[in-house]
Every structure is written in structure tokens, then in C-alpha cells.
Design brief:
Elements: E1 4-7, E2 22-27, H1 32-41, E3 44-45, H2 56-62, H3 69-72, E4 79-85, E5 91-94, H4 100-106, E6 116-126, E7 130-139, H5 144-155, H6 157-162, E8 166-177, E9 182-196, H7 204-219, E10 227-235, H8 238-245, E11 255-263, H9 264-268, H10 271-281, E12 286-291, H11 296-299, E13 317-326, H12 341-349, H13 356-365
Helix pairs in contact: 5-7, 5-10
Length: 366
């Protein structure tokens, strides 16, 4: 099912009033590459998936974090209305005025759990310039100094978030890259920080200076042991960056992935504990991504109808931290489609959380 339509306001079916916001209504087969492209032609931006092949169904019904979530909230926070087909074959409109329990449950409670999504209407936002800072910090080995620096940088995430900065950094304890002429392994920390330029105080220069100062402060106790580079870029809008930097678009990697949501206390209360946690979280042969994708936009979000069923931990989390490493497992053990044990627990941690009882009641009633 394909199809997109854009409007300058929206009247939810059965509500009798209009919501004064730009919207896009997308059929269930729509992918974010096309949605973002068409939105940009109208000088609009949407909160969407990190790759252009991401579809709206599972992404939205699971919550949906984005490079823009720290500013605007999770993708599911932007939902104004859905059309679904129930297990009984009914075609229902769900919004804040009708089928309110399903409207709550479908926004974060899991894909196809309560019905099959056929279309959705989302808020869209006026486009704004977008600044990025590509960076790489390195030292010869993953020494104690390396992990001290990592912990310090992570402890400063709340300060970055207060300034509107988000990012996709990656911890790389044993990194080589022939394209970058890094042929001898180094312990690295690389990736991207970025910020939508919504305020006069936020500029490409301010972003670069903030990150440079952070890295200088982090490495100051270890003179001549670290080096770093920062490459700033500025784009006329989010899509101008996204169209050449989304992805990856391929599939089939033989890796295991797990993740955690971390709040401000987890990042700042005890730097020694934080350091040891990330050392364990990033064992030899793996990488981890302490992604700064939450913040004020997620914390202060007011979804239509008052709330949604996304894991409540998102409303205090700052970081979605992901771990991945190559696996020799070619088939999942029969006891669990999530590789059992540790991986199943990780899935539960990032699922509906404390909303589980209400979701179960909603499912039973339908």
C-alpha cells in the first residue's frame, strides 16, 4: 500500500475540531526515504527512520527514535490518527476521539499486536538548517586512560543535550579502516554530533567549538596520548543531510545486537561505574553506540490523547546504547527468536515496560 498526502491542518475523524499543524498521511507501505523526499519539497521535515527503506508500520508502533527526537520527540509522539484492520477484520479509525484504547496501544505497544496498520497521519515540522560535526578521537590502545576518557565524554551528554545537541557516536576499542589509512588497530571514538539550527545561539561554529572543548577537557589529564579531528558541515535542511547519509540499506549482517536505555543518573552519578559498565558492554571484538537520541523533545512530549504506550523509560532516558558483535550463530536457538537468555531480556527491557498490564487488557478486550 503506497500513497502520501500533505495538509496544512488536520481534523481527526469524529472529533469536530481541527489541529493546526502540518501533517502527512501515509499508507502502510510507505518508506521514510519517499516520505522525507516529498516532505522536503514542501519545506517540511518529519521524525522518521534512520534509513530510507524503513517502513512506517513497525517503526511507529514500536516507538521510533530519530536524529530529530531530541528536538521533536519520538516518531510515535507525532501520530494524530491511524487506520487499522483488527484481527476480526474490522476497519477502524483510531484517534483521540474514537477507539481511544487502541489509539493509545498502537502508539508504542508493538507492531501488529492489536491490528494491522493501513495508514497513519503524522505531524510535520517546518524545515530548518541542520549542522553536523563528524569526529574521530583515538589513542593507540584501549587502556584505562581510553575508558576514562569515554566515561567522561558520556558524563557530559546531559550538557550537550541541554544545548540541543544529539548524535550517533560509536565506541571502537579495536579499530582499523583502510579508507582512513588506519591500518594498525587503535582505540577510537567516532561518529557524528548534530543540531537543528532553531536558535540564533546554535550555529555550526558553536557545535564544533562545544565538541572540541569537550574532547580537550576529556583528554587533558593524558597529554600526548590522544588525538582527535572534527569536520563541521552545514546543510540547508535535514533532508539535505539525510539523503546521502542514511542507512545502511543492505541487510543480512551476521551480528548480535542488544541495547539499553540510560538516564541522566546512569551517566553522571558514578563515572567509575560508568566506565566499567561500558568496558563490559563493549567486549573484545565488539562495538557499542551510546546514541544521544533522547532529551527534552522526548521528555516533554505531549502525545495526542494525553499519552501513548511507548516504554515509559523513554521519558527519562537520554541515551539508547546499542552493542553489536560478529556472531558464529547462523540460526536462532529454538527456545527464543531473540537468541534466548540475555537477548530476550534486552528485548523486554526495551519493550512496553510498565505499560504491559494495560496493553494486555486492551488486547483482551479486542
Amino acid at each position: 500500500m503506497q500513497g502520501l498526502s500533505f495538509h496544512g491542518s488536520f481534523t481527526p475523524k469524529g472529533c469536530g475540531y481541527s489541529i493546526d499543524t502540518h501533517v502527512v498521511t501515509a499508507a502502510a507501505g510507505s518508506q521514510f526515504g519517499k516520505i522525507n523526499d516529498q516532505a522536503s519539497l514542501r519545506n517540511l521535515t518529519v521524525v522518521g527512520g534512520g534509513a530510507e527503506t524503513v517502513g512506517i508500520g513497525g517503526y511507529l508502533t514500536g516507538g521510533g527514535h530519530s536524529a530529530l527526537s531530541a528536538t521533536y520527540g519520538l516518531a510515535v509522539d507525532q501520530v494524530l490518527e491511524m487506520e487499522i484492520v483488527t484481527p476480526g477484520g474490522e476497519i477502524l479509525t483510531v484517534n483521540e476521539c474514537q477507539n481511544e484504547d487502541l489509539f493509545w496501544a498502537m502508539r508504542g505497544g508493538g507492531g501488529s499486536t492489536f491490528g494491522v496498520l493501513t495508514s497513519v497521519t503524522l505531524k510535520a515540522f517546518p524545515s530548518t538548517p541542520f549542522a553536523t560535526a563528524k569526529f574521530f578521537l583515538s589513542t593507540p590502545t584501549a587502556s584505562e586512560a581510553y575508558w576514562d576518557v569515554i566515561a567522561y565524554i558520556l558524563s557530559q551528554y546531559p550538557s550537550l543535550s541541554t544545548q540541543g545537541i544529539a548524535g550517533y557516536p560509536i565506541i571502537l576499542p579495536n579499530f582499523t579502516n583502510s579508507a582512513l589509512n588506519i591500518t594498525t588497530p587503535v582505540a577510537g571514538f567516532g561518529g557524528l554530533f548534530f543540531i537543528p539550527l532553531l536558535s540564533p545561539s546554535n550555529t555550526s561554529a558553536s557545535l564544533t567549538t562545544t565538541i572540541a572543548n569537550l574532547f580537550a577537557d576529556a583528554t587533558a589529564p593524558y597529554p600526548l596520548q590522544f588525538e582527535f579531528s572534527i569536520i563541521p558541515e552545514i546543510y540547508p535542511d535535514f533532508y539535505s543531510w539525510y539523503k546521502n547519509h542514511n542507512g545502511p540499506l543492505d541487510a543480512g549482517y551476521n551480528i548480535l545486537v542488544g541495547s539499553r536505555l540510560l538516564d541522566v543518573k546512569a551517566l553522571t552519578a558514578n563515572l567509575t561505574a560508568l566506565k566499567e559498565a561500558f568496558k563490559r558492554f563493549t567486549p573484545p571484538g565488539s562495538i557499542s553506540g551510546p546514541f544521544l537520541v533522547s532529551g527534552k523533545g522526548v521528555w516533554d512530549a505531549v502525545p495526542r490523547g494525553g499519552s501513548n504506550s511507548v516504554n515509559p523509560a523513554w521519558r527519562t532516558a537520554l541515551v539508547h546504547s546499542s552493542e553489536s558483535f560478529l556472531s558464529t550463530i547462523t540460526r536462532a536457538p529454538p527456545q527464543s527468536p531473540y537468541l534466548g537468555g540475555r537477548w530476550q531480556r534486552m528485548k523486554q527491557d526495551l519493550g512496553p515496560g510498565g505499560n504491559q498490564p494495560q496493553l494486555a487488557n486492551t488486547k483482551t478486550s479486542h
